[in-house]
Design a protein that fits this description.
single chain, about 350 residues, alpha+beta, Nucleotidyltransferase, domain 5, three-stranded mixed sheet
Length: about 350
C-alpha cells in the first residue's frame, strides 16, 4: 500500500497522489479502479458512461493507464481499498500523529507503508514485499517527463496587485497590476506567471478570503508614497530582524520624511541580496554611526565583494570624528616632573 495525506480533497491533491504513488512503486499500473469522485467524473450518462473531467483526462493521457469505475454507493466494488483505509486509520493514525508539516506527516506514513512490507499475512508463506515483486514486474514504465500536479487558472491581476485563486488573494509585483496572469496551484504553493516569466511564488493558503502578501512586491510603490509606510497592510507581520526597526527609527528621527524613503530603499536591497547580508550591513552601519541608505548599500557590496569599506565622512556627519592635537613638549614635562617627585 501507499498512503499520503493532504490538506484538502482538491484536483491538485488528486493528481499529486498519482505522481507520488507511481514514484513510490516505480511504475504505473495497467488499470486503476476509482469511485465516482467529481474530480475525475464530470457526470454519469443514462447508459452509465462516465464523462471524464479535463484534468483527469490529461492525467490519464500522460500515464496511459486504463480507468475502471465502481458503481455509485457500492463500496464492495473496491472492497480492498475500503479495507485498506480502515487498516491505515487503526494502525497508522492511532494515536493521532502530530507533526509540524504535511511533509513530516507523509514521511511518517511512507515509513509505515515500507515497514508493512515485511509483514506476512495469514494464508501466505511470503511477506508482502516478496509478493509485491511479481506485481511490480507487470507495471508500465514511468514516462520521461513527470506530470505537473497542479490546477491551472488564467485570470487578471487587480488594481491593487492581487490575484485570486480558490477564494484567496495572492500578491504580485505592483508593475503587474491589471495584467493577464496564469496561476498554477500546487498542493503547498501557488506560482503566478505573466507570459513566460514567473512573477510570484507563495505558500498555499487553505483559509477562506485570505490575503497573502509578499512585502517585496509593494516596495516600489511605497518608495513613492512613503507616508503609507507605517500603515501598509502588506508590511504588517513582516518579521524582520530587530536591526531593521532600529534603523527605521534612527533614519526617521534624523531625517524625517526623507528618512522613511531611505528606509524603504534599504528594504529594497532585499530584492537582490540575502536577508543575512543586509542585516549584517545594517548592524555595521549602526555601529559606525553611518545612518543612511548609501552607507548600508556600500557595506552590503563590500561584504559581497569581500573588500574593506571606505565611507566618506563628509556624507555622514553622525560618524564620530577623531580630533588629533599637536604634540607639545610641556605635556611630557609634566610626566617627567611627576616621575622625579
Amino acid at each position: 500500500m501507499f498512503v499520503k495525506g493532504y490538506p484538502a480533497e482538491t484536483t491538485e491533491a488528486f493528481c499529486d497522489g498519482h505522481v507520488a504513488a507511481f514514484a513510490f512503486f516505480g511504475g504505473i499500473p495497467q488499470s486503476i479502479v476509482y469511485d465516482n469522485t467529481k474530480i475525475a467524473v464530470a457526470r454519469i450518462l443514462g447508459d452509465k458512461t462516465r464523462v471524464r473531467t479535463r484534468r483527469f483526462t490529461e492525467l490519464q493521457s500522460h500515464y496511459l493507464f486504463v480507468d475502471k469505475f465502481g458503481r455509485p454507493a457500492r463500496g464492495n466494488d473496491k472492497g480492498k481499498v475500503e479495507g485498506m483505509i480502515g487498516y491505515v486509520r487503526r494502525n497508522f493514525m492511532v494515536p493521532a500523529p502530530r507533526y509540524d508539516s504535511f511533509d513530516d506527516l507523509n514521511a511518517h506514513l511512507e515509513a509505515k507503508c515500507l515497514a508493512r512490507q515485511s509483514d506476512t499475512l495469514r494464508g501466505h508463506s511470503q511477506n508482502i514485499g516478496e509478493r509485491l515483486i511479481a506485481d511490480l514486474e507487470a507495471l508500465m514504465g514511468l514516462p520521461v517527463a513527470e506530470y505537473e500536479a497542479c490546477d491551472h487558472v488564467s485570470t487578471r491581476a487587480t488594481s491593487i496587485s492581487m490575484v485570486r485563486f480558490r477564494g484567496n488573494d495572492y500578491s504580485v509585483p505592483v508593475a503587474y497590476a491589471h495584467h493577464d496572469v496564469h496561476v498554477r496551484g500546487f498542493v503547498h504553493e501557488v506560482i503566478i506567471g505573466c507570459g513566460n516569466e514567473m512573477i510570484a511564488r507563495h505558500q498555499r493558503s487553505y483559509d477562506k478570503a485570505d490575503m497573502i502578501f509578499d512585502p517585496l512586491h509593494f516596495l516600489p510603490l511605497l518608495e513613492q508614497k512613503v507616508g503609507a509606510l507605517d500603515q501598509a497592510a502588506p508590511l504588517q507581520g513582516w518579521n524582520l530582524p530587530d536591526v531593521f526597526a532600529t534603523l527605521h527609527r534612527l533614519l526617521e528621527a534624523r531625517m524625517g520624511k526623507p528618512g522613511k524613503r531611505e528606509y524603504v530603499q534599504v528594504l529594497r536591497l532585499l530584492e537582490t541580496f540575502d536577508l543575512d547580508v543586509v542585516r549584517s550591513a545594517i548592524s555595521q552601519a549602526i555601529d559606525l554611526g553611518a545612518i543612511g541608505y548609501d552607507a548600508v548599500k556600500h557595506l552590503v557590496l563590500c561584504r559581497i565583494e569581500k573588500r574593506p569599506p571606505r565611507l566618506d565622512l563628509d556624507f555622514y556627519p553622525y560618524l564620530p570624528k577623531a580630533n588629533v592635537g599637536t604634540t607639545r613638549p610641556s605635556s611630557y614635562m609634566s610626566l617627567m616632573g611627576g616621575s622625579a617627585a
